[in-house]
Amino acid sequence: MARLPRLIGRGRALEVLLGGEDIPGDLAERYGYVNRALPDAELDHFVDALARRIAGFDKRAIADIKRLVDIPTLPPDTEIGAEWDAFLVSAHRPQAQQNLKRLMEMGLQTNPDVEKRLPYYTGTLGQ
User: Fold this and answer.
1) 3-class DSSP state of 95
2) Is the Cβ–Cβ distance between 23 and 36 less than 8 Å?
């Protein structure tokens, strides 16, 4: 949660986080959530070519670029810690425990349909 608003903006981050829906690749690309959306048939070639290109550059230059890009774009560790603490508190609330129990009864971690369509199943919890 600390990183997402910086990546896609506050409104879109709230939509993603509060809505709890999967995001199709083309929309994720438009939002800036992913660098690009590629057809499955093109993905392996693209990743392999990019990885080989990057691997051919000076390692120190790569590390410096990553470090310098991280400074203005990543939240400080204190925000990540606060986010984790809030998650743990939330996960232990009675309503969250009840919802998790219901999801497990529906087949979470055992039923492939629940795993593939988790947003649908979590959406039924409030009904």
Assistant:
1) helix
2) no
